[in-house]
């Protein structure tokens, strides 16, 4: 019949989750729900399954290997010092992007959505993880790079921005990533370009590299 002894303060805190914990759990639940609803091309039997081949073409357009090979080929074929400087820095940006995304994926280790089909174009070990989206990071990085260093007409500049956005959206539609993977990837790629600009390679700052070409 005696009253129960009060719980220690730390136990009371464990029984009452913080507002931040609740908010993060809710955000994660919304992210998973929205990602599954938007994964309309995750399989041939999905709502937009017929558009899956087109989404996979877009996937290849944002993949690192075509960009690395194309940039390296252009660097070897270029006979202009200004063009070589731009292409060398683009190659540096792409390599930096690959390393950074691989490190973050290895640290976070977020699994890909359960509705994803592991039929991606050329994957490595860390590609089993989802956060962040390397395609989204690369698309944002390349978009900023191209807009700053190529003289393009306004319609082409709009197409470059649309391409970056479509690559990001396609990752969710294919079921490859959750929404937050893509959003963080776009932000990371946008910020990564500023790092590339700060570390810009030139004949003065990196004469040994330019001597190779």
UniProtKB/TrEMBL annotation:
Membrane topology: Multi-pass membrane protein
Domain of life assignment: Eukaryota
Any one cellular-component term (Gene Ontology): nuclear inner membrane
Keyword Nucleus assigned: yes
Keywords assigned: Endoplasmic reticulum, Hydrolase, Lipid metabolism, Membrane, Nucleus, Transmembrane, Transmembrane helix
Compartments (UniProt record): Endoplasmic reticulum membrane; Nucleus inner membrane
CDD domains: PAP2_containing_2_like
Catalytic activity from the UniProt record: 1,2-dihexadecanoyl-sn-glycero-3-phosphate + H2O = 1,2-dihexadecanoyl-sn-glycerol + phosphate; presqualene phosphate + H2O = presqualene alcohol + phosphate; (2E,6E,10E)-geranylgeranyl phosphate + H2O = (2E,6E,10E)-geranylgeraniol + phosphate; presqualene diphosphate + H2O = presqualene phosphate + phosphate + H(+)
Matches recorded under InterPro entries: PAP2/HPO (IPR000326), PAP2/HPO_sf (IPR036938)
Pfam families (alphabetical): PAP2
Transmembrane segments: 87-108, 145-170, 182-201
One example of a Gene Ontology biological process annotation: lipid metabolic process
SUPFAM superfamilies for this protein: Acid phosphatase/Vanadium-dependent haloperoxidase
E.C. no: 3.6.1.68
Homology family: Belongs to the PA-phosphatase related phosphoesterase family.
Protein name as catalogued: Polyisoprenoid diphosphate/phosphate phosphohydrolase PLPP6
């Amino acid at each position: 019949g005696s009253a129960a002894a009060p719980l220690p303060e730390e136990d009371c805190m464990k029984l009452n989750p913080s507002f931040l914990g609740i908010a993060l759990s809710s955000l994660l639940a919304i992210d998973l729900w929205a990602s599954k609803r938007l994964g309309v091309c995750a399989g041939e039997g999905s709502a937009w399954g017929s558009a899956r081949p087109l989404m996979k073409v877009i996937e290849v357009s944002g993949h690192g290997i075509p960009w690395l090979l194309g940039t390296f080929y252009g660097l070897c074929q270029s006979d202009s010092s200004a063009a070589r400087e731009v292409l060398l820095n683009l190659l540096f940006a792409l390599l930096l992007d690959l390393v950074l995304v691989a490190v973050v994926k290895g640290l976070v280790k977020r699994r890909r959505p359960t509705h994803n089909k592991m039929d991606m174009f050329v994957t490595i070990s860390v590609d089993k993880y989802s956060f962040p989206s390397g395609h989204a990071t690369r698309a944002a990085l390349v978009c900023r790079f191209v807009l700053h260093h190529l003289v393009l007409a306004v319609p082409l500049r709009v197409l470059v921005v649309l391409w970056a956005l479509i690559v990001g959206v396609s990752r969710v539609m294919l079921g490859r990533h959750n929404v937050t993977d893509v959003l963080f990837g776009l932000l990371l790629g946008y910020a990564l370009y500023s790092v590339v600009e700060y570390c810009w390679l030139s004949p003065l700052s990196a004469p040994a590299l330019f001597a190779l070409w």
